[in-house]
Amino acid sequence: MRLDIPMLAWIGAVLFATYGCSGKSASAPTAPEATSGGETPAGSGEGPSEAGPSEAESAWGATRAEQCRREAHPTVSSKAKKLIDQGVRAAETNNTTSAETSFQAALKRDPNAYPALYSLGVLADRAGNERDAMNYYRRSLRVLPDYAPAVRGISTIQLRRNQVQDAVATVEPLANEYRANLEMQALYAEVLVEARRLDEAWMAARRALKCDERFVPALIALVKASRAQGRDELADSILEQAMQVDPDVAELYFLHGEQLEAEPGQLREAMAAYERAIELRPNYAEARMALGIQLLAGGNYPAALAHFQAAERLVPTLPETHVNLGDAYRATQRWTEAQRSYRRALELQSKLPEAHYGLGLLFLTAAGDFPGLDELTAYEKAVDEFKTYRGEMGPRLAKDDQSQEYLRDLDRMIKRTRRRIEREQGGAS
Question: How far apart are CA 108 and CA 117, in angstroms?
Answer without folding.
Answer: 11
